[in-house]
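Q: Sequence in, structure out?
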Amino acid sequence: MTTVQLRELVLADLAAIEVIERRSYPTPWSRSMFAGELAKPSSICLGAFDADGEEGVLVGYLVVSRYVDAWHVMNVAVDPEHRSRGIAAMMIERLFELTADDARRGYTLEVRVSNATAIRLYERLGFKSRGIRRGYYTDNREDALIMWKDPVRSNGSQTAT
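A: Exactly. Output:
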């Protein structure tokens, strides 16, 4: 079992982010896209690092942007060799902890309609399907499922819907 530590991503992590991004997505983000998000004061960029190794190797990341009415999960990925170990859930739960005092903003994300594993994860974390973005993904024009989660209160309970 891998011991994982979460910390804020920094520019020095870009090369490791790119490796996971290329292994995870058919149309990966560019280095400059990640650098732009890391530089935004309104973004939350978390990395999951293998704490068992001396180097603290990056095994996953989460990039979230703050908008007027929502925290938008822009990118989440776990290295294929470390998937199915709860790392993505851990990062998203940490996001909820970091934003628990923001009762005005919920959470949103898009996910490929074919990505049943990710959809199940997001549903377990409280996200609900709220619509479809037709032809959202540029590599194959696949639709995206739009998912939303209500704000999380400081005491851990959700607001009423």
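The helical segments are 14-24, 31-39, 87-98, 116-124.
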